[in-house]
Amino acid sequence: MKKLLVFVTTLLVSAGTAFAQDLLITNARIIVGNGQVIESGALLVRAGRIAAIGPTAPAGVPAATPRLDARGMSIMPGFIDGHRHVVQGNIQAYMPNAQQRMNEFLEAGYTTLLTGGGNAEANLTLSKAVESGEIKGPRIIPSSSLNLTQTPDEARAEVRRLAGLGVKFIGEINVNSFNPPPAQMETLRAAIDESKKVGSTVVVHAVSPKAMHAAIDVGTTHFVHTPHFGWLTNDDAKRVAEIG
User: Fold this and answer.
1) N or C: less crowded end of the chain, CB within 10 Å?
2) What tens digit of pLDDT does each residue of 117-142 get?
3) Would you say 183 and 214 are in contact if contact means Cβ atoms under 8 Å apart?
4) Which run of H or of E encompasses 216?
């Protein structure tokens, strides 16, 4: 029989219907996340945040604190998905089933999702629904795509507009895989420059070595997906590593 997993993060502990704001979990196998495993330990939550982890419960825990005996179960950090396409299309069509979809992520252990592009307003709507407690789900970090057919000035204005909405991840931005035109790359350069001013991150989808190098040339430091049109050389890989 497989052991059940208890995923514990600030988000899940803070969800009032799932866990109390204060909670003591005992007798759990705790996978700390740095290589350490406590075979039978205790985890204390105070005010919705993990306050202590160890082989025994810390001293001074109030008797009224809710307790959970997790014997036979494991605790581990929640998973973070760094590139997840969540809302595909119309947000109004998505929302009636949003709770079911979010439950699927939670049950799989995901507690944070960075959306992979899409519509800013749709991603924000879902993010705010989770933050408000309307929907129980993983924390949603909203992002938005950016159209490189715009002029550089239009791209700068869009980056500022998105930042004003609270969207600080711009992407995935598609770069022409086979022959990135100069106008497209100048627009990308402008978007990256403007993103630095407003504290945003531009993420580029470049799936050929040529597109990848063109994007690096204009300042790209974040990519999603690896080139699959053509092969990377060791020098190509080294250049990507050097930009971090």
Assistant:
1) N
2) 889 999 999 999 999 999 999 999 99
3) no
4) helix 209-217
